[in-house]
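Appendix B, record 7
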Amino acid sequence: ARKQQVYTALYRWRPDGQWDQVAKPCAVDPKEWLSQITHPCLFVGDGSAVYKSLIEDTVGPLARFAPPYLNTPRPSVVAHVGFEQIQRGDTCDVALLVPNYIRKSDAETKLESGKLGPSLGDPKA
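Structure tokens (predicted):
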């Protein structure tokens, strides 16, 4: 996520093979996030490799790590998850799909704070 933050979310695995969302996706300081872990937790993704020492130091024996080859999103996994959703009848109109941005872009933040400067074509510029 840069800015000394990581993108994260927290899910609980159910015996039926499904996942329940425990904490919504967010961009947070890793130290702050890790201090909230109180149960065994599987860390997955490139941030788990970058912050492995911090995770181990903070979470201790509660930390589990996915093998490195599982830390990169794969189209085959997305296809598998989608196939399972279709089998359950959990479908939607693809025209309604939208990206889920966790935080505003730097450009949006600068524009809102007035630090981006005048735009081209701005009659006041």
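Remarks on this record: The CA atoms of residues 13 and 19 lie 5 Å apart. The radius of gyration is 19 Å.
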